[in-house]
Design a protein that fits this description.
504 residues; alpha/beta; Aldehyde Dehydrogenase, Chain A, domain 1; Aldehyde Dehydrogenase, Chain A, domain 2; 2 domains; 14 helices; binds 2-aminohexanedioic acid
Length: 504
């Protein structure tokens, strides 16, 4: 049994780790969590039932009534300690992410660092949940806005960022005075349990058990119960566009709030003026990093015709040198896909690419070894090929050639998704054009940086089928609070706005 599993309190046996926030003893069905590098079961998790969910949401509501009254900077103090706890467990949590979802060590640890950064940011935020003051048109009146917490926030996360995406939401939601219920992907339930335990221990120490809650359950029962639940005013969901469309419709149906962070189909444009060494590294990390399983992964590459041949040749050579294997080993840059289903999806996409006339320049098949490994793939393609408009959650990169920057930008935008985008150029004019109102239509637009690896200080999210939500930094905290406009009359008269008179 691995030491890091012990230290995180996960029993690598079957039945293994129990789920939930510690006050519900679940009796549900056991679901194994599998190591994608070997195919071995790491541990099993007992699923929560809808009744368990119900108990937890009641408790989260009860604790909310108290938690919201703790001054925000005091809530921030607890989050500062949560950041410390995450720092302390960074290596172990990173190792668990590597084991459970197959990220290479530096990316597993990098993800935990992203959560640490979120905790730090939320500490500062807890002193900056500021509203505006306005000038009233009425004498002796004062007008201002203030922000209140919402209540119990529902957080749905995907397998690919099993620690950080929760932290994006949880740190901000907690600073804002909400309690929350986290429903993680069943493909990464052990990371969720360990992350929850590390952070919840800090809350428990301060007498605030029940602010953070975890429910591990099936989408069909627990997931549906949560999105339909009027006791949960905000659902923040990360995952596929298909899932998000369903969540969005159900939550809108009860006039609840949604924060959606869904699929991407991110592109990089490489101009002829670009620093091609820089571009090569940016493209390789964007397309191959996390085995192409980030929502920000680079899936399309637009190369200026004058550099396309040479750049593609170098990229293919770089792909063929990428060390693929056990992601816990140093030097490895690409681990496995999350599971066998993902390999099947990759293989289906490769077959479709061939049918639609794409030319596979490298990759295109699974690796001949145990585990869910595939080869990173480059496809010479035409933007009109329907598959290029779809997000395949795998390391498949479509390469196109262009002559005019405006055409490349138009083609980049001509997909349903709108998450991340980038241009590599040394031309000031091209960079500004890419960033202008007629430039990239994505939520993230980078110059001389790839599409993935965003810092938490900015607002993260995208447009169109990506769902429109913004998480993490900037003023994203506003999504977790409700705005109240307050007008106070300190005079002796009762003037009405807009000059209306009503004398009795
Ligand atoms: C995701 O894939 O859902 O910008 C999140 C990035 C990371 C977050 C990705 N900071 O690639």
């Amino acid at each position: 049994m691995s030491n890091f599993l012990n230290r995180l309190g996960i029993e690598a046996s079957n039945p293994g780790a129990a789920s939930t926030s510690g006050f519900v003893d679940t009796k549900g069905r056991e679901v194994p969590s599998t190591d994608p590098t070997t195919g071995d079961v790491i541990a099993s998790v007992r699923l929560c039932s809808v009744d368990d969910y119900d108990t937890i949401v009641n408790e989260a509501q009860r604790v909310f009534a108290e938690w919201r009254m703790l001054p925000a900077p005091k809530r921030g103090e607890i989050l500062r300690e949560v950041g410390e706890a995450l720092r302390e467990h960074k290596t172990d949590l990173g190792a668990l992410i590597t084991r459970e979802v197959g990220k290479v060590t530096s990316e597993g640890e990098g993800e935990v660092q992203e959560s640490v950064d979120m905790a730090d940011l939320a500490v500062g935020m807890s002193r900056q949940l500021n509203g505006l003051t306005m000038h009233s048109e009425r004498a002796s009146h004062r007008m201002y806005e203030q922000w209140h917490p919402l209540g119990v926030v529902g957080i749905i996360t995907a397998f690919n960022f099993p620690n950080a995406v929760w932290a994006w939401n949880a740190m901000v939601a907690a600073a804002a005075g909400n309690t929350m219920i986290w429903k993680p992907s069943l493909k990464a339930s052990l990371t969720a349990i360990a992350t929850h335990r590390v952070c919840d221990a800090v809350f428990q120490k301060h007498g605030w058990g029940g602010v953070l809650n975890l429910v591990i359950g099936d989408d069909a029962d627990v997931g549906e119960a949560m999105i339909r639940d009027r006791r949960v005013p905000l659902i923040s969901a990360t995952g596929s566009t298909r899932m998000g469309r369903h969540v969005g419709q159900v939550v809108a149906g009860r006039l609840g709030r949604c924060l959606l962070e869904l699929g991407g189909n991110n592109a990089i444009i490489v101009e002829k003026s670009a620093d091609l060494d820089l571009a090569l590294r940016g493209v390789a990390f964007g397309a191959v990093g996390t085995a192409g399983q980030r929502c920000t992964s680079t899936r399309r590459l637009f190369l200026h015709r004058s550099i396309a041949g040479e750049f593609t040749k170098r990229l293919v050579a770089a792909y063929e040198r990428i060390p693929i294997g056990d992601p816990s080993q140093s030097g490895i840059l690409m681990g496995p896909l999350i599971d066998e289903d993902a390999v099947v999806m990759y293989e289906k996409a490769i077959a479709t690419i061939r049918e639609q006339g794409g030319q596979i320049l490298t990759g295109g098949e699974r690796l001949d070894r145990a585990g869910s490994f595939v080869k990173p793939t480059i496809v010479k393609a035409d933007p009109s090929m329907p598959i290029c408009k779809h997000e395949t959650f795998a390391p498949i990169l479509y390469v196109f050639e262009y002559d005019e920057l405006n055409d490349a930008i138009a083609q980049q935008n001509d997909v349903d998704q709108g998450l991340s985008s980038a241009i590599f150029t040394d031309s000031f004019r091209s960079a500004e054009s890419f960033l202008s109102h007629r430039g990239s239509d994505c939520g993230i637009a980078n110059v001389n940086i790839g599409t993935s690896g965003a810092e938490i200080g900015g607002a993260f999210g995208g447009e169109k089928d990506t769902g429109g939500g913004r998480e993490a930094g900037s003023d994203s905290w506003k999504a977790y609070m409700r705005r109240q406009t307050c007008t106070l009359n300190w005079g002796t008269d009762l003037p009405l706005a807009q000059g209306v008179t009503f004398d009795i």
